[in-house]
Each structure stands twice: as structure tokens, then as C-alpha cells.
């Protein structure tokens, strides 16, 4: 199983175009940049799937040698897209994929519903490419021998879809290939027994690293939105849990631009490393098995 972490920032990216917070200002000054959350994964190194479709997708694809078309053709190694949610930072990149000959989209029924009703992007790009909306529930075998399981972690709807019913609005994916297991959970509201079951036996976990602390956004922007109220367990509260799982490699991703840990020289990194965890890097490649 091979993975390329295409983007490691939460919605807005780092720096965010309209944000002058300390972190964004420093990032602009020092040339630190993180693009929005997205992953490419393959069971055999030949057939690839995107997990989430970030607004930065075009640049991310062009920077990934594995995802280039075969010379002289328009044959892409991309077999489809799996969505962990219908949030805009995970779906706007679908527009970028409209040049594809066909576009299988795997997501929960709730997410598909949002992409047909409140944000009818599937219908819009259906005029350009052959969209196939596949409901993903439980286990599924994908091309290249990759097995994927979707497990619901949150029922927080995107702001544009507040009125829509249903459950399964944010999932974690558990991938198995070459006998190894990777969990991708860019949105995690709480570390509970259900999450323990999701990560049971995982070699690698890519985890929600949106905020370092519960009140980070209040300090940075004055907005009164604690991390947990936004469906994101702060990194500081995940670290003691991670320390209990020394056999598993944990990398934080989906970092908000206010998160000091988005910077390579953050003093707070000592605690992350002390717990045995890492901060995912842009373009980072993981090879399992
Ligand atoms: C989230 O991760 O909570 C959402 O993407 C938030 C947003 O962009 O509105
Ligand atoms: Mn997000
Ligand atoms: Zn900022």
C-alpha cells in the first residue's frame, strides 16, 4: 500500500488569503505553505484513489509523479474519489476533475445527497464527465487490491447543508492492502471506544490535527468557536491517547492556519514528538508493506 499526502491544511489553507493572524503572517513571511486536506492512496502502486477533493487539487496532482497520465494518452492512474465528508474543503476539487473520462465518487448516502441537492456539484460536473455516485457502506474492494471500510465519526453537517436529514456526515476510512492497515480520519470530534475499534490493528493513523488547543480560534480571530464545537478534537487532548498506542504511527493532518504546529519550528512540536506522533508534511509519501 502506498500513500501520498497531497495536502495537510484545513479549509482556507496556510496562509489563508484574508487572514493576518500570527501564524498566517509568519507563514507568508517565511514561505511556509500548506494546501488543503487531500490524500492519494494505492494498493498496488498502479491504481490510485483520491481521498477528498481539495480546492488545491490541480496543483497537488501536478506535483505527484504517481498520478501523471501514461505518455501519449489521457489514461489516468486515478480510479475514483472517496469523500470523508461533503465539506467544501473536501469537495470543491471535484470541479477540477471534470476533464476525466469518468468519475466514480464514493461517499455515504448523506454526502451524496448533499452533492445532488444543497450543493449540486455532481449534477453540474455530470455535464462534463461521466459521474457515478457510489454509496460506500462497510467494506468494499477497490482496484489494485485495496480494501476500504467507512466508519461514521460525526453527524456535523456542512454549513450549507444544515437542513438536510440523515446520518453519516463525516467518516473515517480504514484501508487494508498488502496486509497492512491505514486509517484516515481528518475529522474526529472525540476519541471514544468506537474510534479505538477503528484504529485497532492500524499501522498508520492520519488524524484530525485542525487545532492544537480548544480555544485556539478564539485567541487568533476572536470568533467564539471552541475546537470541539466544530467537531475537531484538539491535538493536545489526543496526545495522551496516542501515547497509549506505541505500536501505531500517528500523523496529524488537516491543520488549521491558526495552529502553531503548522510551522516546522513550533516549540509545541516537542510535546507531539514526546507522545510519539508527527505532523504530516506536504507531499509526504508513506509505503506500507
Ligand atoms: C471543517 O473541517 O470543520 C470544515 O471544513 C469547516 C469549514 O470549512 O467550514
Ligand atoms: Mn475541513
Ligand atoms: Zn491565519
Automatic annotation (TrEMBL):
<feature type="domain" description="Metallo-beta-lactamase">
    <location>
        <begin position="48"/>
        <end position="254"/>
    </location>
</feature>
<keyword id="KW-0884">PQQ biosynthesis</keyword>
<protein>
    <recommendedName>
        <fullName>Coenzyme PQQ synthesis protein B</fullName>
    </recommendedName>
</protein>
<comment type="similarity">
    <text>Belongs to the PqqB family.</text>
</comment>
<dbReference type="Pfam" id="PF12706">
    <property type="entry name" value="Lactamase_B_2"/>
</dbReference>
<comment type="function">
    <text>May be involved in the transport of PQQ or its precursor to the periplasm.</text>
</comment>
<keyword id="KW-0813">Transport</keyword>
<dbReference type="InterPro" id="IPR011842">
    <property type="entry name" value="PQQ_synth_PqqB"/>
</dbReference>
<dbReference type="InterPro" id="IPR001279">
    <property type="entry name" value="Metallo-B-lactamas"/>
</dbReference>
<dbReference type="InterPro" id="IPR036866">
    <property type="entry name" value="RibonucZ/Hydroxyglut_hydro"/>
</dbReference>
<comment type="pathway">
    <text>Cofactor biosynthesis; pyrroloquinoline quinone biosynthesis.</text>
</comment>
<dbReference type="GO" id="GO:0018189">
    <property type="term" value="P:pyrroloquinoline quinone biosynthetic process"/>
</dbReference>
Amino acid at each position: 500500500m502506498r500513500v501520498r499526502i497531497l495536502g495537510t491544511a484545513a479549509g482556507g489553507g496556510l496562509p489563508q488569503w484574508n487572514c493576518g493572524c500570527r501564524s498566517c503572517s509568519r507563514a507568508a513571511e517565511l514561505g511556509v505553505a500548506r494546501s488543503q486536506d487531500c490524500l492519494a492512496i494505492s494498493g498496488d502502486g498502479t491504481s490510485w484513489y483520491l481521498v477528498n477533493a481539495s480546492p488545491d487539487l490541480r496543483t497537488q496532482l501536478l506535483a505527484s509523479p504517481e498520478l501523471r497520465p501514461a505518455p501519449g494518452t489521457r489514461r489516468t492512474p486515478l480510479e475514483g474519489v472517496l469523500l470523508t465528508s461533503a465539506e467544501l474543503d473536501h469537495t470543491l476539487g471535484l470541479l477540477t476533475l471534470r476533464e476525466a473520462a469518468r468519475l466514480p465518487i464514493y461517499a455515504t448516502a448523506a454526502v451524496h445527497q448533499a452533492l445532488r441537492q444543497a450543493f449540486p456539484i455532481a449534477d453540474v460536473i455530470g455535464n462534463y464527465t461521466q459521474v457515478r455516485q457510489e454509496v460506500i457502506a462497510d467494506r468494499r474492494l477497490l482496484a489494485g487490491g485495496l480494501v476500504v471500510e467507512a466508519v461514521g465519526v460525526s453527524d456535523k453537517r456542512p454549513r450549507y447543508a444544515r437542513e438536510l436529514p440523515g446520518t453519516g456526515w463525516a467518516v473515517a476510512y480504514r484501508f487494508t492492502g498488502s496486509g497492512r492497515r491505514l486509517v484516515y480520519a481528518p475529522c474526529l470530534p472525540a476519541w471514544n471506544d468506537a474510534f479505538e475499534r477503528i484504529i485497532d490493528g492500524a499501522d498508520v493513523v492520519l488524524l484530525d490535527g485542525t487545532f492544537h488547543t480548544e480555544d485556539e480560534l478564539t485567541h487568533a480571530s476572536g470568533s467564539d468557536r471552541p475546537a470541539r464545537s466544530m467537531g475537531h478534537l484538539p491535538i493536545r487532548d489526543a496526545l495522551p491517547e496516542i501515547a497509549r498506542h506505541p505500536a501505531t504511527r500517528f500523523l496529524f493532518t488537516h491543520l488549521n492556519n491558526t495552529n502553531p504546529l503548522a510551522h516546522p519550528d513550533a516549540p509545541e512540536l516537542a510535546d507531539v514528538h514526546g507522545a510519539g506522533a508527527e505532523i504530516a508534511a506536504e507531499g509526504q509519501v508513506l509505503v506500507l508493506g
